């Protein structure tokens, strides 16, 4: 079998690129559009980022995630193949359930984070970051060819792109959709994969039926929401030199995977699990101006102990929050630090995350 090539952009994506103008619905709602990973995306709508953040927590938000890259892996060897690339125990998932996972490299670093859903024993569905799309597809394709050569061409694993998988399809507003319970805000949320030709009608129906409570929400509020929830943004809080253990994602490494390894970088990651990492991702409250990415973190004796990776003002807490990496030993909650903002030191303190308590549904 030939290695799968990175799929071409959809007709909808090509049309947007050619005409260089955003779709009509965001403009009708006052969308302020910005370039994002090859797409035109709203940074905010009529509401301010502050108001959008608060409304999401109190009433709900509707986000456009059509820029994300959905992939299906199919075949009787698709799960063993995927487990060579990610840290999750995919085999242990029940059909119709999923988990956050991390694609790792040979050094244990994070190539990308992803949500993987086990549709069935011969079908898994992945959603990866738009900005990592080409890198992820190349990585998966390269290792798929190696896997097929090693296992023989009868391995029968294939990769296709699409926002919908064929598991747990529901009829929503007259369209066949794939519904998953997930989110990036700390609130209990749903992701709806809908055929592109029906997306606008579905969005309008959701907004209308909520009687104005649910509002279209852009990238600005999405960032403040995910920061309040203590969630990583790839490219800021996760990079190819950062391991899942250092990023505070050890919980995503399945118990069987800890015992057996078998994924890229397992030797590095399993050693860190046993001995502890040299650096750790932590949260901060800080005074003064909000700390931003690359702000230096200084310890009690004046030495640099780390760096902020994400930061801003929390609309819900009405105070500055940030997260970043510090040397182990300086990671305990209550540790006092100085954070340099434009060269001036301000008081900061390590705090537990999430900053705003999550409200995920948990079955009893």
TrEMBL record:
Q: According to the UniProt entry, what is the EC number of this protein?
A: 2.1.2.10
Which compartments does it reside in?
A: Mitochondrion
Listed under catalytic activity are: N(6)-[(R)-S(8)-aminomethyldihydrolipoyl]-L-lysyl-[protein] + (6S)-5,6,7,8-tetrahydrofolate = N(6)-[(R)-dihydrolipoyl]-L-lysyl-[protein] + (6R)-5,10-methylene-5,6,7,8-tetrahydrofolate + NH4(+)
Q: Domain GCVT N-terminal: where?
A: 28-152, 165-255
Quaternary form?
The glycine cleavage system is composed of four proteins: P, T, L and H.
Q: Which SUPFAM superfamilies match?
A: Aminomethyltransferase beta-barrel domain (SSF101790), Folate-binding domain (SSF103025)
Q: What is its main location?
A: mitochondrion
A GO CC term attached to the entry: mitochondrion
The entry's protein name is Aminomethyltransferase, mitochondrial
Protein family: Belongs to the GcvT family.
**Domain Aminomethyltransferase C-terminal stretches:** 280-356
EC class, as a word, reads transferase
Short name of one Pfam family: GCV_T_C
Q: Which stretches are tagged as biased composition: Basic and acidic residues?
A: 17-30
Binding, substrate: 191
What are the boundaries of the region Disordered? 1-30
Enumerate the UniProt keywords alphabetically: Aminotransferase, Mitochondrion, Transferase, Transit peptide
Q: Which InterPro entries match?
A: GcvT/YgfZ/DmdA, GcvT/YgfZ_C, GcvT_C, GCVT_N, TrmE/GcvT-like
What species was this sequence derived from? Iris pallida
Any one GO molecular-function label of the UniProt entry: transaminase activity
């Amino acid at each position: 079998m030939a290695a799968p090539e990175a799929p071409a952009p959809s007709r909808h994506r090509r049309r947007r690129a050619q005409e260089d103008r955003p779709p009509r619905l965001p403009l009708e709602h006052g969308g302020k559009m910005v370039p994002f990973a090859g797409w035109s995306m709203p940074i905010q709508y009529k509401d301010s980022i502050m108001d959008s953040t608060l409304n999401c927590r109190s009433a709900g938000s509707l986000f456009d995630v059509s820029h994300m890259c959905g992939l299906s892996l199919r075949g009787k060897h698709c799960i063993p193949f995927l487990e060579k690339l990610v840290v999750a125990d995919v085999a242990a998932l029940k059909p119709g359930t999923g988990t956050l996972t991390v694609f790792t490299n040979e050094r244990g670093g994070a190539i990308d984070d992803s949500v993987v859903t086990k549709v069935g024993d011969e079908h898994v569905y992945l959603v990866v970051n738009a900005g990592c799309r080409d890198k992820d597809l190349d990585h998966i394709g390269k290792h798929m060819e190696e896997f097929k050569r090693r296992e023989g061409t009868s391995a029968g694993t294939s990769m296709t792109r699409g926002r919908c998988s064929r598991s747990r399809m529901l009829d929503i507003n007259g369209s066949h959709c794939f519904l998953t319970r997930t989110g990036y805000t700390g609130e209990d949320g749903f992701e709806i994969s809908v055929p592109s030709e029906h997306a606008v009608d579905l969005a309008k129906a959701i907004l209308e039926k909520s009687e104005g409570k649910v509002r279209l929400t852009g990238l600005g509020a999405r960032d403040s929401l995910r920061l309040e929830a203590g969630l990583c943004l790839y490219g800021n809080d996760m990079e190819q030199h950062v391991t899942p253990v250092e990023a505070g994602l050890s919980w995503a490494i399945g118990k069987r995977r800890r015992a057996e390894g078998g994924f890229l970088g397992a030797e590095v990651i399993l050693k860190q699990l046993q001995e502890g990492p040299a650096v750790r991702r932590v949260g901060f409250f800080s005074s003064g101006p909000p700390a931003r990415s690359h702000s230096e973190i200084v310890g009690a004796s004046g030495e640099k102990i780390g760096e902020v990776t994400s930061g801003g003002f929390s609309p819900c807490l009405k105070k500055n929050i940030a997260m970043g990496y510090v040397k182990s030993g300086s990671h305990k909650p209550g540790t006092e630090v100085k954070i340099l903002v434009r060269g001036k030191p301000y008081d900061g303190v390590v705090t537990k995350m999430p900053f705003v308590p999550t409200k995920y549904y948990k079955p009893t």
